Amino acid sequence: MRIVLVGPPGAGKGTQAQYLAKNLSIPHISTGDLFRANISQGTALGKQAQEYMNAGQLVPDAVTIGMATDRLQQPDAEGGFLLDGFPRNLGQAEALDGYLADKGVKLDAVLDLEVPEDEVVKRIAGRRICRNDSSHVFHVSYTPPKAAGVCDKCGGELYQRDDDSEDTVRKRLEVYHSETEPIIDFYKAQELVVTISALGTVEEVTRRAMEALGRPAA
């Protein structure tokens, strides 16, 4: 299957992408991984991206599209893929459509993870991370530490990242609404969008997604 995964920040796209890709036996291709791989490998596109990032500028769509299409040409993606974080805007969606049309294939579905805005804010703004080890992550409501502000695993101080503040989350949501949501309408016109609720446990959301895609969960 060839799938695009969309949803607001905090919808759990990264987690669901991993589970879905495993269930469907297709590669999970995320924008973050594409950037890291190209930059670490010193590719021409990676160097371009690094220059823009070093200058504090947004990486142009052409660079992101180039990274994504290069990745889609790798053998493991020939039989299908799950795109996470790409396309991020209408221009990227149109470019992806053009690329796939040239290859004589098309998307099977665009899976839209739906989460109420207040829940997004609650999920992200409630995160607390250990200063000693960033892999130690807690949540004030869902997975609170035994002692407020103290990591259960190492006793380190828990803090809220600047990116996780409520004001920052709401700004990220504004960007999502203005830039990414239009691609949902673009794909709805092609009758590709499958919308599911991203509320509940990871397992519940995965099962919901697999059923919506017409595949039994493993």
Provide a descriptive summary of the structure in words:
By secondary structure, the protein is an alpha/beta fold. It has a single domain, classed as Rossmann fold (3-Layer(aba) Sandwich). 47% of the residues lie in helices and 15% in strands. It contains eight helices and eight strands; from the N terminus they run βαβαααβαβαβββαβα. It has helices at residues 13-24, 31-41, 44-54, 61-72, 90-103, 117-125, 166-188, 202-212, and strands spanning 2-6, 28-30, 81-84, 109-114, 127-130, 137-139, 158-159, 193-197. The protein has a five-stranded parallel sheet, sandwiched between helices. The radius of gyration is 18 Å and the shape is globular. The chain starts with a strand and ends in a 6-residue tail after the last helix. The mean pLDDT is 94.
Q: Notable features of this structure?
A:
globular, cytoplasm, alpha/beta, AMP kinase activity, single chain, 218 residues, three-stranded antiparallel beta sheet, nucleotide biosynthesis, Rossmann fold, five-stranded parallel beta sheet
Largest sheet entry: 5 strands, parallel
What's the CATH superfamily, by name? P-loop containing nucleotide triphosphate hydrolases
Strand share of the residues? 5-15%
Radius of gyration: 18 Å
Put simply, the count of helices is: 8
Shape: globular
Please name the CATH architecture.
3-Layer(aba) Sandwich
Low-confidence stretches: none
Quickly name the level 1 CATH class: Alpha Beta
For the secondary structure, the number of strands is 8
In percent, how helical is the residue content?
A: 40-55%
User: Taking all residues together, what is the mean pLDDT?
Assistant: 94
The tally of domains stands at 1
Side by side, the strands of the main sheet go 2-3-1-4-8
Ends apart, CA distance between termini: 16 Å
Structural class estimated from helices and strands: alpha/beta
What series of H and E elements makes up the topology?
EHEHHHEHEHEEEHEH
- CATH topology call: Rossmann fold
